[in-house]
Amino acid sequence: MLRGPVPLGREQAIPVGAGHAAAQQEDAGLLAGLQDAEFGVDGREVGDKPVREYLEGRRVRESRVNRAIAARSAAGRAMISTQWASAEFAALSQLCAAGLPVPYPVQILQTELLLEFIGEPDGTAAPRLAEIRPAGAELASLWDQLVAALCGLARLGYAHGDLSAYNLLVHGSRLVMIDMPQIVDLIANPRGVEFLTRDSANVARWFTARGLTAVTPAPADLAGLLLAEARLS
Ligand SMILES: Nc1ncnc2c1ncn2[C@@H]1O[C@H](COP(=O)(O)OP(=O)(O)OP(=O)(O)O)[C@@H](O)[C@H]1O
Ligand SMILES: [Mg+2]
Fold first, then answer.
1. Residue 165, ligand 1, Cβ within 6 A
2. Do 111 and 189 belong to one domain?
């Protein structure tokens, strides 16, 4: 993990990747923290699917690189990690520019991303949605924010790909989407619709279990709305 003062446009910067506890221990004055996007491509699972599936539709030009990736050699794994980090950085840049609630991507260095820190000035990270118990108007507001964010994503042609109450932070009353190395291109990925549907079902289930009712769209209608926004239905 690299450290050092970083000029930031918004709020403070971040400690990610080492997890929540490390985030809280970080010296907030340093404005530091990098997310290590290097993970076991063959082994690690995102949600209940192997990571490999997310690679579909994400091709690179050089055949040497493609061969190394296909062979899953050490060089290939390093290239995939770099590719994932740069895909996440590019996606976050695009999403920020579109005004969507994601951490501002500050810098990328090979496999490591430096992101905006979502949390308090004392270095306490914002809680994950799964860790809080919102109800009533607060719950409805978080749902509205999530629907707006996902509609924005779908209009740009993306699904999150690993969406759940663990990859949504709540900072004050504001919802922020995180953890997007596997962001799914709905057109290029042949299973894009499947990922969008799974994402929708995950969050719909969570909000329904929290007692959300009488909202538009209803949780059960989220996937259909997003498919329409993406012009896939
Ligand atoms: N931009 C951020 N600002 C503050 N905290 C963050 C940020 N991004 C991530 N975190 C914290 O770090 C944790 C892990 O981040 P993330 O979900 O991106 O990685 P992960 O690969 O899912 O790791 P883990 O398996 O530990 O959840 C998050 O649950 C959150 O608590
Ligand atoms: Mg996560």
1. no
2. no
Check whether residue 187 and residue 112 sit in a common domain.
no
Distances in Å between the alpha carbon of 54 and those of 28, 59, 78? Answer: 34, 11, 16
Distance of alpha carbon 50 from the chain centroid: 17
pLDDT tens figures, 106-126: 999 888 899 999 999 999 999
Q: What angle do CA 23, 95, 146 make, to 5 degrees?
A: 75
- Identify the residue with better confidence: 91 or 5: 91
When divided into structural domains, the chain yields a total of: 2
Tell me the best of 10, 12, 20, 38 to mutate to test the pocket of ligand 1, counting ligand atoms within 8 Å of each CB and taking the most.
Answer: 20
Last residue within a domain, chosen from 90, 117, 144: 117
* Weakest-pLDDT range from 50-54, 59-63, 100-104: 50-54
Q: Which residue from 123, 122, 124, 92 is spatially nearest to 107, judged by alpha carbons?
A: 92
